[in-house]
Inverse folding.
């Protein structure tokens, strides 16, 4: 196979780094000061591999005249918790089951109306899983896909979607149009019994408005794998019992990370062989 100069921006996965080194001519960006590296190797880099935290910004792209492809080691996945499992776990660990008796009743997930913002690959995976719990699925995105998903209900606005959902899942790409797509108005529409799940990116949600809505009881609960200013989490959220907080680990399994690495490698090899990319972004 033709030798491809690949710039890895950060050592975020040992398997990926090993395979890149084996299959291509690998440059490790963290080993040399930026300007020194660019002076010595800018013309040899034809591919960049980054992730959600270490991306190829405009300045880096402009500095790499031979750059042909940017491959991203990044993904999100759903985590929905209506049964208060973390709270129930703490109840048992504190010995309260024995001293106080049975834990308070919760609400079941089956049958809940699930609205999904962004019916892409991740949104489809969420829909497939919640359908197994007999949950009606609704969605919002730029275009309706009635022929592809005849059993799903499409809403032309996020506010309408939220007003007709018990659980609202954010799974769309982040761009200028989707920044703060979950606004105060959307949270008001979701309501005091609604649950917001964000497995996209932190800036999808107006975090300040969300914290206020949760504190005031205008929003029932939230499951958050991402935040606006990671790793900084709003202090107010830490003391709330109606939220589940995760440190951006939606894809944090060995199996998923290997699959992500294999996808990066597959895209790079397809590019070298002039074959269609496996997951192109155009």
């Amino acid at each position: 196979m033709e030798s491809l100069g690949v710039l890895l921006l950060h050592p975020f996965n040992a398997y990926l780094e090993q395979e890149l080194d084996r299959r291509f001519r690998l440059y490790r960006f963290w080993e040399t000061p930026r300007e020194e590296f660019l002076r010595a190797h800018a013309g040899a880099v034809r591919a960049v591999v980054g992730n959600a935290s270490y991306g190829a910004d405009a300045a880096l792209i402009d500095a790499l005249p031979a750059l042909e492809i940017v491959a991203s080691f990044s993904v999100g996945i759903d985590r929905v918790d209506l049964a208060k499992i973390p709270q129930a776990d703490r109840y048992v660990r504190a010995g309260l089951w024995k001293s106080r008796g049975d834990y308070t009743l919760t609400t079941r997930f089956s049958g809940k109306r699930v609205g999904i913002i962004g019916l892409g690959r991740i949104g489809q995976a969420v829909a497939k899983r919640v359908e197994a719990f007999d949950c009606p699925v609704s969605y919002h995105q730029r275009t309706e896909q009635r022929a592809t998903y005849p059993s799903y209900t499409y809403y032309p606005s996020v506010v309408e979607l939220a007003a007709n959902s018990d659980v609202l899942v954010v799974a769309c790409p982040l761009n200028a149009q989707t920044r703060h797509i979950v606004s105060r108005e959307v949270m008001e529409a979701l309501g005091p019994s609604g649950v917001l799940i964000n497995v996209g990116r932190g800036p999808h949600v107006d975090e300040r408005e969300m914290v206020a809505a949760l504190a005031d009881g205008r929003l029932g609960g939230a499951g958050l794998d991402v935040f606006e200013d990671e790793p900084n989490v709003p202090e107010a959220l830490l003391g709330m019992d109606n939220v589940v907080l995760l440190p951006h680990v939606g894809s944090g399994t060995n199996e998923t990370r290997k699959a992500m690495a294999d996808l990066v490698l597959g895209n790079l090899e397809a590019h070298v062989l002039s074959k269609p990319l496996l997951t192109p972004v155009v």
